[in-house]
Amino acid sequence: MRAALKTVDQVTAGEALALSFDDAEVLLDPAGVAYFVEHRILAVSDLHLEKGSSYARRRVYLPPYDTAATLARLAAMVAKYDPATIISLGDGFHDKDASARLGHEARDAIAAIAARRELIWVTGNHDPLPPANVPGDSVEMLAFGRTVFRHIPDASEFGHEVCGHLHPCARIVGGGRSVRRPCFASDGIRLIMPSFGVFTGGLNVCDDEFAGLFEMSRFRAYMLGKDRVFAVGARKLHGD
Amino acid sequence: MSIATSPSNPSSDGIDLPVPFLDWFISKGWQPRAHQLELLTKADAGRSSLLIAPTGAGKTLAGFLPSLVDLTRRGSPQPGTKKPGVHTLYISPLKALAVDIHRNLSTPVEEMALPVMIETRTGDTPQSRRQRQKLNPPDILLTTPEQLALLLSHKDAERFFADLRYVVLDELHSLVTSKRGHLLALGLARLHRLCPRLRVTGLSATVAEPDMLRQWLVPQRDGGEMADIITVAGGAKPDITILKSKERVPWSGHSARYSMPEVYEAIRRHKTTLLFVNTRSQSEMLFQELWRINEDNLPIALHHGSLDVSQRRKVEHAMQNNALRAIVATSTLDLGIDWGDVDLVIHVGSPKGASRLAQRIGRANHRMDEASKAILVPANRFEVMECQAALDANYLGAQDTPPLAEGALDVLCQHILGTACAEPFRSDDLYAEIVTAAPYANLPRETFDRAVQFVAHGGYALQSYERYARIRQTSEGTWRISHPSIAQQYRLNAGTIVEAAMLNIRMTRHRDKGAAVRAGPTLGKIEEGFVEALAPGDTFLFAGKVLRFEGIRESDCIVSKASDLNAKVPVYAGGKFPTTTYLSEQVRKMLSDRKSWSRLPAQVSDWLHIQKRKSAVPGPRDLLVETFPRGARYYLVAYPFEGRLAHQTLCMLLTRRLERAKARPLGFVASDYAVAIWGLRDMGAMLRSGEITLDGLFDQDMLGDDLESWLDESFLLKRTFRNCAVIAGLIEKRHPGKEKSGRQVTVSADLIYDVLRTHEPDHILLQATRTDARTGLLDIGRLNDMLSRIRGRIMHKDLEGISPLAVPVMLEIGKESVHGGDASEALMAEAANDLVLEALGKDI
Asked: Which InterPro entries does this chain map to (chain A) (predicted)?
């Protein structure tokens, strides 16, 4: 039987789209990670690990395989780009106890990802505290060159900013059809990452939550296709 | 309610009818009918019965007579004694029907001054009255399957039903085929256990296989136990004709627009006409067409399920007061409700199944001894044949219901949780109870145990949620809910009807301001999927008006009045229901029997004669396959007559095979009657040279691996999965006010599906999903029957050009809009995902 989720090979095979960001090259991968070539940083956002068990506490029993599936995809990206630094841009864990609920396999998987690399957990609104007994450092925000990495976009930030939190999605309509996909949202100054966790939904970039964050004439939604990324201008985008 | 009888009926000699009843019959100048008395006798003997009778036979009174007599014998409770609980439970598929029956039953009860209290309990019943009903229950409670499930999930269910003696199930034939029927069957099994002396009466229209329904009514212990059956012969023969139009009957399409002047003329000649169509969009279009030519300004109204409730009530009220001359309606009016003085039923489009036709015709003249009058209006040439076949079937009295499916597993999961909410259960006991319900008689114990595990903590192989379980096994081995809030959660989510995400349509006077304008009144509801593909400025038909789409705001679809009379966006107007197996068989028979062509209009029989000369007409069990070139493409057209769903599946699978055989297929289209596939290579030549064979192409083994691998990539299953997940209680149902939007639910259900499929493909919910898709959207069973029927009976005609029979399906190519029926929409959405993006280019 063929797998519904992309296999690790399929994830790895995607063709990244190169974007110029702060005079440096960033590769936007259709799997939903961004690779900053110069600094060898792999950025990923909103992993929401242990979302399944978080729901189970409220007696909604999502399949308990989300953490393993998300980490396997992340491991594939790490293998593909071989970064020096991995930045999880916040909401790496679905709630503040989530890191404590991680199973052995998940801990091992994180350890393998972090081996010989720097792993940085930016805190988010879901996980405001540093994760417990997990490799890597925890910070509220950090900067590389002129680029700031934080979880929630800050409209007052004037420099280059890479963030997450909003789970951007874009929708286009054509030929009587409608396609909605997660996307990177960027105007070349700010880059909002798509959510990477397998149980994470998305918010349309036309939503009010995105208002004021972008210079619209330069805005593009970089929609995640099956194995490539499609840059779509603001005029083509539709709300939900 | 009509209870009139002819003097030839046997008297009530030998049957102990209480005095008020005898007096009442005498005062009316009536006599009880034979079947009414027979039912009474059976009930007295403690037997359950299935009563099969045509509309207007006094079915309802017959159903309630044993209860009324028993209640009268019992008398009013003595002062100071405890008032007994509910005595009779009446369950109908429609809320409206329960309300209607309440009115009709109250009249004789009041006239006889019987000591009987009757009340309804539906989703609309206010909370205060529901509370009161539990403390002070009526003698007869009229309700729906969902309400029964809710009542049974309460702690005091056993006490509440302690005095229950009778259950009356109305419109049983329509209840049993759905998941609501499965829920009801499980509820009934529980009632049989709570009240071992229970007598169940099923009321049904004529069905092809009454034994299935008879088993349904009584507990299945050794298998095959049946209720008694009482059959009332059909009433006056309905007077049905097919519209013999002077206009040209179109080759294809579903609009029947050609017939409107003649339909209007028929409306003018009758007092009140009910005009039935198969889909909402069809009703919209015909309503508009009729008003376009309504020179006399006849009061013609529109009624369909998407209209605002207040608007529907207004129409219904006007109908009962005979203030309307015609009403254009869809199946919302389908079941046995009395509607004023209807003297003509017009059915536009294919009747899609003979029993549906009989049901609708029963609407005219709700009196059995007068002939109902009906006109069938076929929308295209195949429908002419179908109408003729339906007409023959109606005269023969042969009626079909879809075969009863095995009980659905998602419904089972819901029921298990409901049972635990009422009281702790032992697995052995509950299993024994559940297999007495006919749809679940063959449920394997292992599947039941997996369902219990699912209810407890999701039933995953990786049992990581046990500490958060909903139900837990105690040391004595009973399962009980782990917290009272679980019962509340269950009650919010009970039921099997998962609504498609709907948006309110609201009018604004401001154009081109997008959705951020002040919106006016609500016109009704519309499917989210339809609106999704509209761009602002597009116009479409709704509630008889051409509306201009402005935008979406939260759960509102904002529209303005359009100046244009013609809606721009074509609304898919095809038949919503696939033609039933029985009717398809009749059509194939008619096609192969040249003598029967004389019964068809001349233009249709001419068409068939030319087909015979130019190509061939297949025998009733054969499959005709034609191949021919046209333009730069090569076509393969086949005529299985098995309905759109089965055809769509067939096309998907054939295309895969042709691809493998390097025939380079490009596309396909499926109608109710035929399939057409086109490609770049000459499939006729490939067949001649033996490069491909028809027996190989249509081999049944396509339902093996090909089907599996297609399903794996298909969008269809995701949609089905969402419904199963909601019914089974994995995802919460949406609730007005605090609901997540439909989109968010869809997204998360899709994500869950992907993860589950990858990591646990044998999970019980995926099993339920595949079963649903097989029977529902894909119609695999039917396709399988067809493939086995045609084995070795495929007739190939390699033609130089298109044949007459191929014209209708060829006209469908490119015409079908994506807004179409559920299946086609899903199929195309699947293709859309990548195509649109690739086609529109990388940087747009």
From this structure: Calcineurin-like_PHP (IPR004843), Metallo-depent_PP-like (IPR029052), PdeM-like (IPR026336), Pesterase_MJ0037-like (IPR024173)
Rounded CA-CA distance B539/B550 in Å is 9
Which residue in the set B457, B818, B833 is minimally distant from A61, CB to CB? Answer: B457
Task: Let me know whether B367 and B384 are in one domain.
Answer: yes
* Helix orientation angle between B381-396 and B581-592, rounded to the nearest 10 degrees: 110
Nearest Cβ partner for A177 among B758, B759, B832: B832
Residue A178's domain comprises 8-142+160-236
> In this complex, which of B760, B839, B844 lies closest to A236 when CB atoms are compared?
B844
A220 part of a folded domain: yes
- Return the closest-CA partner of residue A78 out of A35, A45, A46: A35
**A5 in contact with chain B, both atoms CB, cutoff 8 A:** yes
Q: Are residues B219 and B256 both part of a single domain?
A: no
CATH number of the domain bearing residue B294: 3.40.50.300
Q: Does the distance separating the beta carbons of B468 and A59 come in below 8 Å?
A: yes
Q: From the DSSP assignment, how many helices (H) and strands (E) are in chain A? A: 5, 16
pLDDT in tens, A219-238: 999 988 877 888 888 887 88
Which of the residues A5, A62, A67, A71 would you substitute to probe the B interface, choosing the one with the greatest number of B C-beta atoms within 10 Å? A62
A chain contacts of residue B836, beta-carbon cutoff 8 Å: 172, 174-175, 177, 179
As for how many domains chain B has, the answer is 3
Same domain, B74 and B178: yes
Q: Does A234 touch chain B (CB under 8 A)?
A: no
Of B177, B198, B231, the last residue of a domain is B231
Q: What residues contact B164, with CB distance under 8 A and at least 6 apart? A: B85, B86, B87, B88, B89, B191, B194, B195, B198
pLDDT tens-digit readout, B294-329: 999 999 998 887 777 778 778 878 877 888 899 898
Reduce the DSSP state of residue A204 to 3 states and report it. Answer: strand
Tell whether A147 is covered by a domain.
no
Distance CA B76, CA B833 (A): 67
Residue B167 falls within a domain, yes or no? yes
3-state SS assignment for residue A232 = strand
CA torsion, ordered A53, A54, A60, A64, to nearest 10 deg: -20
CA distances for A107 relative to A33, A67, A83, A130, B194, angstroms: 21, 10, 20, 15, 52
Nearest CA in chain A to B764: A63
Flag if B713 and A202 touch (Cβ within 8 Å).
no
Q: What are the beta bridge partners of residue B377?
A: B348
User: Are B249 and B212 contained in the same domain?
Assistant: no
Cβ-Cβ contacts under 8 Å, B818 against chain A:
176-177
Residue B82 lies in a domain: yes
Task: Provide the shortest C-alpha distance from residue A198 to chain B (in Å).
Answer: 7
Cβ distance B607 to B808 under 8 Å? no
Give the Cα separation of B830 and A115 in Å (integer).
40
Query: Chain B contacts of A219, Cβ < 8 Å?
Result: none
Domain that residue B599 falls in: 581-698+790-813
Answer yes or no: is B559 within a domain.
no
Q: Is residue A109 included in any domain, yes or no?
A: yes
Q: What is the mean pLDDT of residues A156-170?
A: 92
Burial environment of residue B781 by CB neighbours within 10 A (0 to 12, 13 to 18, 19 or more): middle
How far is the alpha carbon of B763 from chain A, nearest alpha carbon, in Å?
A: 10
Q: Are residues B257 and B154 in the same domain?
A: no
- B-chain residues within 8 Å CB-CB of A231? 842-844
Total tally of structural domains belonging to chain A:
1
Question: A37 CB contacts (<8 Å, ≥6 apart)?
Answer: A24, A25, A26, A27
Q: Residues B162-209: pLDDT tens digits?
A: 999 999 999 888 788 888 899 999 999 999 999 999 999 999 877 778
Dist CA B415 CA B433 (whole Å): 12
- Please report whether residue A38 resides in a domain: yes
Same domain, B186 and B323: no
